Amino acid sequence: MLGVMFSGRRPVAKDARGNFFIDRDGPMFRYVLNFLRSSKLNLPDNFQEFDQLTEEADFYQIPPLIDALNKLKLTRTVARNGRNQVIRLTLDRDRHGLETLLTVFAEKHILQEIFKGHDCISSPLAFSFDKEQADSSTTAILQEITNYGFEVMTSLSHPDEDKSINEWFFLRKR
Predict the structure, then answer these.
(1) How far apart are CA 92 and CA 127, in angstroms?
(2) Cis (ω within 30 of 0) for the bond into 124?
(3) Cα(160)–Cα(145) distance, integer angstroms
(4) pTM for this model (two decimals)
(5) How far apart are the C-alpha atoms of 117 and 100, rounded to whole Å?
(6) CA 127/CA 102 separation, integer angstroms
(7) What is the DSSP letter of 25?
């Protein structure tokens, strides 16, 4: 449409100063223009006006923009309607701190996503550490989980005479 408008094959409205006048949604046109420049759809994460932007893309007759909008809208709808993902991490230490067992409970695909280099054939995934490795390794695993968008929702501690058990529950919203 823009090409047709400026080719001279179709009359285009101009304002009093001779500037081209297109009576459309100015804020939406910024996204149209960005798409025309880069052939990529770059919208803010909180963008909600898909129908309005699709109308603009239709007005300007830009099928690739319409397709990109439809795909992004579908992706965001699936993500919004998807299930939240949960990880339960249990740290079991003997009374003397000589042996630490760290167990990660999650769906298999989540374990495979986060712990790529480990054998994630089934859930749970267990790590065993000696006294020297326990704290730094546990901290590294906790950090890795948060690096993948999980947030700590709650933590519990169960101390007794022979051992202590700490649990963390992480949530990633989908």
Answers:
(1) 11
(2) yes
(3) 27
(4) 0.50
(5) 21
(6) 5
(7) -
Q: What is the pLDDT along the chain (174 residues), one digit of tens a residue?
A: 555 555 566 677 777 887 766 667 778 888 998 998 998 888 887 888 888 999 988 888 888 898 888 887 766 665 565 678 888 888 888 877 777 888 888 888 888 888 887 665 556 777 777 777 778 888 888 999 999 999 999 888 888 888 888 889 999 987
Q: Which amino acid is at 70?
A: N
Q: Hey, which residues does 126 pair with through a beta bridge?
A: 103
Closest C-alpha to 2, from 46, 37, 44, 27? 37
Q: Which residue stretches of the chain are H helix?
A: 2-6, 26-38, 50-59, 63-81, 108-114, 131-147
Residues 6+ apart with CB under 8 A from 94: 100, 162, 163
Instruction: Tell me how far apart the alpha carbons of residues 158 and 164 are, in angstroms, rounded to a whole number.
Output: 6
Structure tokens at 31: 């996204």
